[in-house]
Amino acid sequence: MILHAETALLPEGWARDVRIVVEEGRIASVSPGAVPEGLAHGCLLPAPVNLHSHTFQRAMAGLTEARTAGQDSFWTWRALMYRFLERLSPEDVQAIAAQAMVEMAESGFSAVCEFHYLHHPVGGGTYADPAEMSARIAAAAGETGLGLTHLPVIYEQGGVDGRALAGGQLRFGATPEVYAQVLEGAGRALANMPDAVLGVAPHSLRAVSQNTLARVAGMVPGGPVHIHIAEQVAEVAEVQAAWGARPVDWAVKNLPLDRRWCMIHATQMTAEETAALARTGAVAGLCPITEANLGDGIFDAPGWLAAGGAFGVGSDSNIRISLAEELRLLEYSQRLNLKARAVLADSRSTGRFLWEGAARGGAQAAGRAGGAIAVGQWADLLALDTGDLRLEGLAGDQLLDAFLFAGRDGLVTDLWSAGRHIVREGRHIAREAVETRFRATMRRLREAL
Ligand code: ZN
């Protein structure tokens, strides 16, 4: 496959008349200043990875915005989420995941890190294939062509004190032995997907014993390791009371953190924790839309960047799936907090800084050869509608700034994931079938609620 772009964002900067040759899903050559052959796209960008998602939560979007008794919080949201997932069958999980993946691709994500914790039937126990649910996620990725880094979650206990799982949590729970079976089955489910990656995900410090935390990174040698950390104030207090240290402080001192690790949220950190965690090489997995929706707080971006920290963005609860909006809100939350402008920027503009940071950090977190338009990387690319009124006449960094800060949904005309051309003229190629099945699933689930 040969693509041509009037302008493209390469690792060394913006280039004109770029020809990109793709072979077996990977970029085989990149030639600026080439004579166009056939159709030319206006602007090609490296398409970032969505580094954190629970796809099944897409089905709850809009269902948890009313006020309940007392003060609503992350914890009352979690109770509703548990009730909802009491109803999900493996077929439902695949239908919802495929819909979420279609929307991710249309918004510009090339791949997703699925932080997958719904393993078991209602009430606990295992399916005949302990990795049934992982196979459903892999099937959804196969149907939609979205790249997948699959992260089966280990969830052992109901709190830092080691209390037993209860209620909705029984569908997540796994001893290290059952978890090893899930990992093995998940590996089989990914076997025919050339760009798929398997990793591990200890759910959080509150849900996994210290014993397991110490050895979980070794369960998929070399693979990505993702963990929720320091999202909520109450979680910080719980860990501090039980272990005598704040979560990130404890993690930096006790876990083998390095570039394989992705720390999801990392919202509640002191300045010292921020700098120490950034220096480990781990990626900060930021989910600005979900963090705003759940009232988590605001990440210390200036402190993180000053210590050389890597970052990427994820759609987490999938309350809304929009790459541009995640990046916009990441910057806007900083502006509101600091009463300043262009916080996530350097000599590059804010849009360019956000884009390149998220593309690089997302690929690192996913363990995926991507994040840049360069030889040897997967062809994870997106084309923008440069003829749209909001982008017309703009070039370089200003084009990206206009896309992220002044754009609208639908400016992504085409998307390739590892060379698979899955979005064309703004629509995912499987949208119709996936959407029809999703509508039927949602009707049934809502009737049952
Ligand atoms: Zn999450």
Low-confidence stretches: none
Share of residues in strands: 15-25%
Mean model confidence by pLDDT: 94
CATH topology of the largest domain: TIM Barrel
Q: Please name the CATH architecture of the largest domain.
A: Alpha-Beta Barrel
Helix coverage percent: 25-40%
Q: CATH homologous superfamily of the largest domain, by name?
A: Metal-dependent hydrolases
Number of discrete domains: 2
Tally of individual helices: 14
Radius of gyration: 21 Å
- Give a short account of the largest sheet: 8 strands, mixed
Number of strands: 17
The hetero molecules present are:
zinc ion
What class would the helix/strand composition place it in?
alpha/beta
Give the helix/strand layout:
Layout: E1 2-10, E2 13-23, E3 26-31, E4 41-46, E5 49-53, H1 74-85, H2 90-107, E6 111-116, H3 132-144, E7 147-154, H4 176-189, E8 197-198, E9 201-202, H5 210-216, E10 225-229, H6 233-243, H7 247-254, E11 261-265, H8 271-278, E12 283-286, H9 288-294, H10 301-306, E13 310-313, H11 323-338, H12 350-366, E14 381-384, H13 396-406, E15 412-417, E16 420-424, E17 427-428, H14 431-448
Parallel strand pairs: 1-4, 5-6, 6-7, 7-8, 7-9, 10-11, 11-12, 12-13
Antiparallel strand pairs: 1-2, 2-3, 4-14, 14-15, 15-16, 16-17
Helix pairs in contact: 2-3, 2-14, 3-4, 12-13
The structure holds zinc ion.
